[in-house]
Design brief:
heterodimer, A: alpha+beta, six-stranded antiparallel sheet, six-stranded mixed sheet, 12 strands, 30% helix, B: alpha+beta, five-stranded antiparallel sheet, 6 helices, 32 strands, 13% helix, 32% strand
Chain lengths: 248, 544
């Protein structure tokens, strides 16, 4: 009981030092070396962002890895888990907290309407190609279900292109693509693909529609730009992210 | 769950009436942008079936008073914000006229709060626009519960103190020069970009790309050193509290010239429009909704959480954060589209969703699996995600006794549901009809989805009993999922009503009646006993 309380206290106090964008120091109170080793093996960038906790009394953090389309997620708490998320599937790792031996390494395919999409899709491999070619591009997620994301698509496209960025609209995956062009004539001007990308999901580009992901100088520029913006704001937001890219 | 008419194209933006009788839907998918969905309507067989009422409102409409006597409807022709009243909309439908308008305070993503001190004759509202946090107050004259006029009052920019550092106030001349240089650079970049797109010669293209990079770098450096030094951060998805005294938004802090990931924060708005920090949730969320004010309590927030891993799936989640107890819990999670959640005044949460339910063979359609879902209470391991579900198809406790009849709000029975989505005026007359112009391989809700391998997901929804006791403790997922992959899926859309207070610490609920959607998408009712703890085993067990 005492140990349990101490553990909860440790989790609580360590959580105070965790903030978005920082490496979550002391995120695990046991088997830390083994978990760190696993994260290293998975090429984690350790650029942690906290997301809504997926289990009670646990805190959830995610980080991109050095491989485009691959992320790691830590569910930290009494029974810590590490997940590796790739377009091929999810692997879950767990440890025996007494011996720190890896006691769980489960691999499974992703069952997700966010990833397994038929038809024209924008995949992580497409994103990787843009990055490798050092193209300047803005990935723009949208859906007719969110009024402004489609209403202001032309405007956002013009703004992106006026700054020399290729504008790539990506449709929310649960929306049917079939008659999009008939309902929304402006969409005909764009090549429409559905999002089928781990990067898009993990960066929460489907939580907010529209969202813009800036790619510049061979880097993905965090964080995403949320919502419709005025010309000045959008340009400034893109510029701020590009500044970081230039410095890398 | 209260089903929507077949063919209704779900929009993600919605607002919830304070007593849960209506939701306001905005979507570009239908011919009418904004509909009032009457959740108390019934079909000709007497079963609950939400009924859409057309309105002349536009884009993302926001309720402007806490009793929904007024709505702020942005971006009408001429860039005007129109203010409509509920009674007029119900009476005149799409032909209703605004009570008042303002062309000087209009932009997308507006948010409105009703300031304290309202009387039967007067109300004061605060309207904040997203882009630059411009805010304006209006005095409303009331008569018999309806708004009869609105007069603009105080205006200004809120939370400037957290966006800009006053100690780093910039020299206007230097900023103007910087902006002028940026404008020149942008023209050059744009011109080169157009040339690149027309150029076939690879060497020339690469040289122009290199020139663009040089110009981009100069422009970004000016932004960093000349324009941005006073910027502390930027915000997104701002929402005022119902009393207009607080604001919540995702805040991106600028640290060493770099934008950090957004986190949801809450600020108190002072009388001079400066803002004081109140809370930090620690992570980014979808747009939040505050609960209605309660004496001596901060109340709760409800929002869409991020897509997260649950089992082997990515799911969207509806999350409630109790500000008084500093506890957060997931109310609902699932794949597919989930719209904005909102609170009723008595603390229930309503949100729209299209749940995916499996389509099994006809022979198995009525094989009792739905009932089985609720039968096995013993075999669950705590480590598994427990799922608990009650459906509200046959009589959820929506607190509006005048409206739970077969007739519409104006006493006219709505027409029987058709596969198309009819939009009605307040007389029940169809004024617009979606012809189901679907992709040949994907049909709208209620139709089969073919030639696509999709996860089987048997799911039901749970509704509520009377607002009552119950803990606000652990986290319980409300979904039932299966590992089995099936080709055929039915989508069932509707509004889900959940009372967070009905969930016990262990994730069970004490409420009845219940029903659920069978694997074929058919709604099956099942009664339970009051006080009984109901557990539902995961669907992968149930379908074996």
């Amino acid at each position: 009981m005492i140990l349990e309380k101490a553990f909860i206290a440790l989790i609580f106090f360590s959580s105070l030092s965790w903030s978005a964008g920082r490496k979550p120091d002391n995120y695990i109170t046991a088997c830390e070396a083994q978990i760190d080793e696993k994260l290293k093996e998975l090429n984690s960038k350790n650029d942690w962002t906290r997301v809504v906790d997926s289990k009670p009394n646990h805190k959830t953090y995610r980080s991109p890895t050095n491989n485009v389309g691959e992320w790691v997620e830590i569910v930290a708490g009494e029974m810590p888990s590490v997940y590796q998320v790739t377009p091929r599937g999810i692997r879950e790792f767990g440890w025996n907290l007494k011996t720190c031996e890896l006691n769980k390494a489960t691999a499974f395919e992703i069952e997700s309407t966010f990833i397994n999409i038929s038809g024209p899709t924008f995949k992580d491999s497409d994103l990787k190609r843009i990055i490798e070619q050092k193209d300047r591009a803005i990935i723009y997620t949208f859906s007719p279900r969110m009024v402004y994301s489609i209403k202001y698509m032309d405007e956002m496209s013009d703004m992106a292109e006026s700054l020399g960025y290729k504008f790539i609209p990506v449709l929310e995956p649960t929306y049917k693509i079939g008659n999009l062009g008939r309902k929304f004539p402006n969409v005909k001007n764009f090549k429409i693909q559905k999002a089928a990308s781990v990067e898009i999901v993990m960066r929460q580009m489907l939580t907010h529609l529209p969202s813009s992901l800036v790619i510049s100088n061979g880097h993905i520029m965090d964080p995403i730009i949320i919502g419709v913006k005025s010309k000045d704001e959008y340009e400034s937001e893109i510029s701020r992210r590009s500044v970081t890219a230039n410095k890398k | 769950m209260i089903p929507y008419p077949d063919g209704f194209e779900l929009g993600n933006y919605q607002r919830v009436h304070p007593n849960g009788t209506y939701v306001l839907h905005s979507s570009m998918s239908e011919k009418v942008n904004v509909v009032l969905m009457d959740l108390t309507a019934r079909d000709t067989d007497g079963k609950k079936l939400a009924r859409p009422l057309a309105t002349p409102m536009n884009d993302e409409v926001y309720p402007a008073t806490n009793d929904w006597s007024l709505f702020a409807s942005p971006n009408h022709p001429g860039k005007i914000m129109h203010y409509y009243g509920l009674s007029g909309l119900l009476k005149n439908g799409i032909f209703d006229k605004p009570i008042f308008s303002d062309s000087k305070h209009n932009k997308y993503y507006q948010s409105v709060g009703e300031l304290p001190g309202s009387t039967k004759e007067k109300k004061r509202i605060r309207v904040t626009l997203y882009s630059d946090r411009r805010t304006k107050e209006y005095d409303l004259n009331m008569s018999k519960g309806n708004v009869v006029s609105g007069t603009p009052g105080k205006s200004g920019v809120i939370c400037e103190n957290i966006i800009k550092d006053p100690s780093k106030k910039l020299d206007p001349t230097i900023v103007a020069n910087g902006k002028a240089r940026i404008a020149i650079l942008k023209k050059k970049i744009n011109s080169l970009y157009r040339e690149v797109n027309l150029e076939d010669d690879l060497d020339k293209t690469q040289e122009m790309e290199r020139q663009i990079d040089v110009l981009q770098n100069e422009k970004d450096e000016i932004q960093r050193t000349v324009i941005d030094p006073e910027i502390l951060g930027t915000i997104s998805a701002p929402v005022l509290s119902p009393n207009g005294m607080e604001i919540a938004f995702n805040f991106e802090k600028r640290v060493d010239g770099k934008m950090t990931p957004p986190v949801q924060q809450i600020y108190k708005i002072n009388s001079d429009y400066s803002c004081d920090f109140m809370e930090d949730l620690g992570y980014e969320t979808g747009k939040v909704q505050f609960s209605y004010p309660q004496n001596g309590k901060k109340g709760s927030l409800v929002f869409q959480g991020s897509a997260t891993i649950e089992g082997k799936k990515f799911v969207n989640a509806i999350v409630v954060h109790d500000r008084d107890q500093n506890k957060t819990r997931m109310l609902f999670s699932g794949q597919g589209s989930i719209g904005y959640p909102g609170f009723t005044k008595d603390g229930r949460v309503i949100f729209p969703t299209c749940a995916e339910t499996s389509e099994m063979s006809t022979a198995r359609e009525d094989d009792g699996d739905a009932a089985d879902l609720h039968a096995d209470h013993s075999s669950l391991r705590q480590a598994e995600r427990d799922s608990y579900s009650i459906d509200d198809n046959n009589g959820g406790p929506i607190n509006d006794t005048n409206r739970t009849t077969k007739k519409g709000p104006d006493g006219i029975a709505p027409p029987k549901t058709s596969p198309a989505f009819p939009i009605l005026n307040s007389d029940g007359v169809v004024i617009s009809e979606n012809q189901n112009e679907s992709d040949p391989t994907e049909k709208v809700k209620g139709k089969m989805v073919t030639d696509r391998l999709v996860p089987l997901e048997a799911r039901s929804f749970w509704g509520i009993g009377p607002f009552g006791n119950g803990g606000f403790g652990g986290l319980g997922s409300l979904q039932i999922q299966s590992k089995v992959l099936k080709r055929n899926v039915k989508l069932k859309c509707g509004a889900v009503i959940i009372d967070p207070n009905q969930i016990n610490d262990d994730g069970t609920i004490n409420e009845t009646p219940l029903s659920c959607i069978s694997k074929s998408g058919k709604l099956i009712s099942k009664s339970g006993r009051s006080g009984q703890n109901l557990k539902v085993k995961p669907a992968e067990k149930a379908v074996k």
